[in-house]
Design brief:
Blueprint: H1 8-16, H2 26-50, H3 57-82, H4 84-100, H5 105-145, H6 171-220, H7 231-280, H8 286-327, H9 335-348, E1 355-356, E2 360-361, H10 364-384
Antiparallel strand pairs: 1-2
């Protein structure tokens, strides 16, 4: 296992999506994604505009939800591309943390545990999202197979609803378009998971550093260290705490507007998918629609949960710094030495957190608000249609 918190899946994704800063191939990959996502988005929103008055409202909502999911990835990539200097600083701090604590058994154990958890979580996130894309494609193909009226290629449903500038007149064109769309959808799903897995990895790393700082506070301010504590040890505590603050603030800068767009778009996407699932229950093609939409619906909820839980977890961990400092035996030490802990306690009262557009903190309460809003919109749509 390499000395890094980033898993191989995440490192590979950062490379092919042009997020890895200051790499020779980054410009090429960014240009590729700008062209491909822009073309796909034009065709997807062309379908949305051209079919705004279509009779099958559920199918129209399906097109809206898939278009918005692709738009969300596009926005995430642009934000990460424009903040490559901050992301580079985060990578440097992570690398420095691994180098500093290689020889310390407890610190090495904490960081290795965080890295292993990040790897398992990344695999789980990627696997679920890729399964969602696969089931979505299978649901579309099953829907075409179960509908006798869709014998002609131009009448068959595409994996991604697009207003293409040409007619699908033959089986060869239809299969070529479906293959290209499945490839594109797979990359979209993988890109979404890379951005989400990166957030989880960064949060787990900084929370591991918080655990290390708490252990240092407990050991330094103990009865056995009353005579061995020195100025260098106190300065290392301050530097460690400051590095944690800087790291958390950089995560906030990197993800605050991503979180804002995610909450706004996922509220609408969850609403659209929920409407599709509810209205499909009494239709002859219900099984195919559920296969296509159910896992997609779950994955969108999980994405919102990941962001909100990450903010909640970071806030809870940051509170533990002040608690650990207060619970230590700082009051038994000379005023000159204990004063450092008092400043650390005061600074820890300002929680480390991730916000949504610097407006509201990401928390489990915010996640429930997203779910409630989505269910309310579903009720309105059901009443209207």
């Amino acid at each position: 296992m390499g000395m890094t918190t980033l898993s191989r899946l995440v490192r590979f994704g950062l490379h092919i999506y042009g997020i890895r800063p200051y790499v020779a191939s980054t410009v090429v990959f960014r240009l590729y994604w700008i062209i491909m996502l822009s073309m796909a988005q034009v065709f997807q929103y062309r379908y949305v505009v051209m079919n705004i008055h279509m009779d099958d409202f559920s199918e129209y909502m399906d097109g809206v939800s898939s278009a918005m999911a692709s738009s969300l990835l596009y926005i995430k990539l642009i934000i990460l591309w424009t903040h490559q200097r901050i992301f580079s600083d985060l990578l440097q701090i992570m690398s420095s943390d691994w180098q500093d604590y290689t020889l310390n058994h407890y610190s090495s154990h904490v960081m290795t545990k965080a890295a292993n958890l990040a790897r398992r979580t990344s695999r789980w996130i990627v696997g679920m999202q890729m399964a969602s894309g696969t089931f979505y494609s299978v649901g579309v193909l099953a829907s075409n197979a179960n509908s006798p009226e869709k014998l002609e290629p131009y009448e068959r449903e595409l994996i991604l609803k697009m207003g293409l500038p040409f007619n699908i007149s033959t089986d060869f064109i239809y299969k070529a378009v479906q293959t290209a769309q499945f490839y594109h959808l797979s990359l979209i799903c993988y890109g979404i998971t890379i951005v989400n897995s990166l957030l989880v990895t960064l949060i787990l790393h900084v929370c591991g550093q918080i655990d290390i700082l708490r252990e240092c506070l407990t050991k330094i301010f103990s009865k056995n260290s009353a005579n061995s504590i020195n100025e260098i040890m106190m300065q290392s505590l301050i530097r460690k705490h400051q590095r944690i603050i800087v790291f958390a603030e950089n995560i906030e800068t990197l993800y605050t507007y991503i979180a804002l767009m995610m909450l706004l778009s996922n509220t609408i996407i969850i609403c659209c998918l929920g409407f599709i699932i509810v209205t499909s229950l009494d239709t002859p093609n219900a099984a195919a629609i559920l296969v296509k939409s159910m896992l997609f619906y779950i994955s969108m909820n999980v994405e919102a949960f990941i962001y909100c839980f990450s903010g909640e977890y970071l806030s809870a961990k940051s509170k533990m710094i002040g608690n650990a400092a207060y619970d230590s035996l700082w009051y038994d030490f000379p005023a000159k030495k204990s004063r450092t802990v008092l400043f650390l306690i005061v600074r820890s009262q300002k929680r480390l957190t991730i916000t949504s557009g610097r407006i509201v903190d990401l928390s489990l309460e915010q996640f429930t608000s997203v779910i409630k809003a989505s269910l309310s919109y579903i009720s309105v749509l059901l009443a209207m249609y």
